[in-house]
Design a protein that fits this description.
- This protein has 21 helices and two strands.
- A two-stranded antiparallel ribbon has the order 1-2.
- A hairpin with a 2-residue loop joins β1 and β2.
Length: about 450
Amino acid sequence: MHHVSTTVTALFVFLLVAMILSLAFEEKIHAKKSVIVGWFAAITLFMAAVFGLVRPETVEILGHPVTLPVYIPGIDWEVIAIILGSSLFVDVTSKCGLFTWIAIKLTKASRGDPLKLLVFYGIMTVVFSAVLNNVTAMIIVGTLSGVSLAKLRLTNKLLGFLLIEGFLTNVGGLLTLISSVPNIIVGNAAGITFVTFFIKASPYVVVATAVTIFMGARLFRIEALKGDAAKAEAASLVAGFDENDGIESAGFFRFGTAMTGLFIIAMASVSITPYVKDLGMGYVALAFAAIMLTRYKATADRFYQAIDWDLLAFFGCLFIVINMMEHALVLELIGEGLKPIIGLGETVGAGVLLVASAVASSVTDNIPLAAMLAKILGGLELASDSPFWWAVIFGANLGGNITPIGSASTLVAVTIIHKNKLPMSFAAFVKVAIPFAALQLAMAAAYVLIVLG
């Protein structure tokens, strides 16, 4: 590593703090994430060139020397490919009606009983968050909750349903390696496989889901129906739902269902599948997206238009900023600051890192946090089963349950709450959320230290 003066490192620290604060006040400054981070990527690149921190790299590709711009090697293209491919696959697959079919089937299975409905919707939120993404899960389940409870004349319970579902999106985001962006970033840096991630995270997710639903039912007084007359009336009300309404083609429904199962299997077996293991999960995600797009091959462009390009641009620019911070020795400086925590050992140290990650994630975007900590921990050459990796994963996800701006899904939950003209201020959300988040984090710390430590 070339010599970097303290002044230069301090300048880049200032730029990093400025970027994080800008992201925290994204709505106040009326700017998209990609624009904010794009500006900082341009500034940090220019400053790195001015101070001689970077220079173009020449690599050999298929026997030919190729000079790469300084910003290309810094981007984690595997993460970009996973997000792009998974987003396209989920978007196209949702058109087959599978997820709506599941949701309505569960609604009818509850027979209109509020407590059963809460349990079914809670479990559905977790599963959808793991298979789709937590924002899509919140939109599907939250919208259906509003319709179902209105039909059951239980709109007074809607606030409780939406808040519990919002909390569970971040719990469900822990279930698989591709459930949330921090999982992808940290898991990729640590070398954690899809199957290993699921096996290690699922026990916590099951217990946390049950505890969250139980707490929510008690807090919002969501109880089972009493009396045969009330049960019969509720059952007749939900019987009017038709799970086949969202299915445009029976053949495409069956195909979409089969492909969803194969997609999960393929992602889970990437590390052991011949040839595919050399291509990675990004290839699998893009390949399945291409397969599903053949159903709409003449109108595929409308799915490209629906891609969250802001998110992808945000990631590309973020990786550039993080890479420049590495060259300016900012990450090394942060790593030195983390050494006292790391020095506490894989018990106390991991617990402190988990809580610190959660608090930081509650007030700013958890993605830059996960990217920075993944880079720093990667430099420490930790084993893939180190509890420090899991501390960041659990903290970055669960921190989203502390405030309404802690994650995109809780922000969507609050948006749906306001759309239904229900009262919910920032302070009111935090007041309700703190007990849930505190218990979830305490359980996570105990799980990481005792089970994964």
